[in-house]
Amino acid sequence: MSSENNFSSVPPSGEHCTTIEVARELGMAVRSVQMMVDRGELEAWKTPGGHRRISRVSVDRWLANRRAGRRGSQRGSPANPRRVLFIEDSAHYQNLVSLMMQQHFPEVSLHLADDGIVGLAMYGQLQPDVLLLDLLLPGIDGATLLTSLRAHPELNRSQLVVVTSLDEEQRRPYAFALRDIPLVYKPNLVTDLPKLLGGLLHEVDASPSAAPEARSATVA
Question: pTM for the full model?
C-alpha cells in the first residue's frame, strides 16, 4: 500500500505540528518521524504546498502508548530489566521481532530504532544487554556502526548480533566488521533468533551486573 494513503485529504481538527517539531519532541531523526507517518503510527495531512502536518492528538497518543509500554515491560520484572535494542528500518522485521520477544522473552524490554543514527544515539542512552542490527541501514550502515563500537570497547558492553538478508557472497565486503559476531539470516529469523538470543541473555544473567555509571555512558 502506498504511503500516500496514510495522509488525510482534509486537516484533522485540533492542533498540528511540523515534522521537525515532532522529531525534536520525540528525540528522533526527521526521517524516522516520516517513516512513522508512512506506517500509520502518526496521523498526518499535506498542505496545498505539499508540506506534512502531523496531528497533535496522534503525537500525544503515541507518547502515551510508549509510556504505557515501558511501564508494562517493567511490571513484575527485576529492578534492572534486561534490554534489547533492535536497529532495523523494515517495519515487517520490527514487528516480527517484537512478536517473537513477547512470546519468548516477555520480561525483556525491547527498543526499536529505524536508522543507524537514531540507533547509535539510543545505544548510548540505553547501553542494552543485546544489540541486534541490520547491515543495510539508512543514516549509518550497520558495518560502520559495528566498526565504531569496536573502536570504543569501553562503551561496547553489549552482546552483538547481526540480522541480515544478505547471503554469504553478498556479505563478503562486510567481513571486516562481522568478525566474531553471531549472524542470523533473515529467512531463518523465526527459528534461529530465539535460541541465539536466549543463550546470550543467559550469559548476561550469569555475568556480574554492570555498574550504574556504565549504564549511563554515551557514544560520541
Answer: 0.60
